[in-house]
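Hi R.,

Here's the chain you asked about this morning:
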Amino acid sequence: MPYPLTKHMSHMTKKKTITSTKYKKIFWLNDNLDFCCSPVDAPQQVDYVSEWLSSYRFRTLESKQVDDVLEIHQHLVIVSMGGFSTMLDSYRNKQTNTLPKQ
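And here is the predicted structure, written out as tokens:
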């Protein structure tokens, strides 16, 4: 389930984001198209995904986990080029907030 934006996430309000509950991170591409992330519980703490992946605690990542993060990057790049992705938080939030038909 995606997490709602908070006032601390103002640097991301116009960005297309993907939230991973598995990694408890919010991912996006910044204005320079750098792959960035922040913890869901500390959105003001911005990291480059490359630094996050290479940090000590993630050196034992399995290839499937790296593939998951690269898939998130792929979807963000597609969206940045005008494409569409159902992984986007804006899409998933609309799906969960849709009123039932009467």
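One quick note: The first helix runs from residue 49 to 54.

Cheers,
M.
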